[in-house]
């Protein structure tokens, strides 16, 4: 799966449709909020809080079939049948799912979506128009407080004529003009981040395509799919965990204190970040499949995994360019048990990674420590700070190896992980690995200082990652 954003994603020309469902919250069943959901949604309505996935079906498929399959997928995943509301505090202040901020109450309620209806957003549109329309739609339909905060769209492709027959060849039908080539539609599913993570996007593709295959074969929808536990059950499971041991809270405190009482910041100058700036997004191809196999073998020879090589390179960069240890936010998933593997939800929480020894062994120990630091509920850890302390300039790295996931999708579906276009005041680097190799995606603020700093950092990062190849 390629990681991109809505302004750069690959889109086929055609007719753009939106599958509309509505969901009105009922004050009946209140669901628990995870620490990360509460933090994300408490920032309020804003454009760009969503993420999306795009893929192409292998053959023509009608809108009604897609809608029927999508309604079944919605029924499988509890988080897609829940909505957030926020109201001024008026009693019930002791409820555990209340933010407590300025008297506002943040709630998550179970809902039952209505039957879907299609609306056409663009006819015979080119890729640029479709991308702009998707961005505008998802910024509204996938708002944290939208009801529901997800939307499925379909691009029915414009007819594509087959290539002309070779000169002198007899047309099969006696006509000079060839029949249009039949193409499958492109499906784009957007959702507010509070309900999905990168793993969830793969689950959505698998579930929807499986249900469409069931329709074609006359099978009951979802007959071949495993049971999907609701994300709310995972939230309750995490809340029931015992308090983190003292060594965990102490290590968190050490890393936060080293960053001035906040989550780690990027070590180089990013310029004026008093207000978020328009984002710059860069994608760098690092390894093809053969080179990736060589680097993984190189890591294995040193008793580590490839991620340790990446951490080693960045540790060296931080010391060479800023004379400080590598400190970065490091998202980790909490799908510790197979019961969560087939669920949709935000099973990601933030950890922190700190390293000042660029040896592979030390870098690998640092990764293991970061995973352990992120394996405990963050609420008790962050309580002394009044929540997760974050300042402009935050630095985060994400490691996405799609080959290691128990849920994956075929590359011939042309899957794309699509991010929103946002304003930002921090740096995030995604390392994305699949069967075709590794690429990096980096997002940073569009300031003169940040552009210069990131050119230096990314060039050094790619060079360092490829150095073992050059050494043979």
Automatic annotation (TrEMBL):
SUPFAM superfamilies: CoA-dependent acyltransferases. InterPro entries: CAT-like_dom_sf. Residues 159-172 have a biased composition (Low complexity). Coiled coil: none annotated. Residues 159-181 are annotated as: Disordered. This is Peptide synthetase. The lineage of its organism: Bacteria, Bacillati, Actinomycetota, Actinomycetes, Micrococcales.
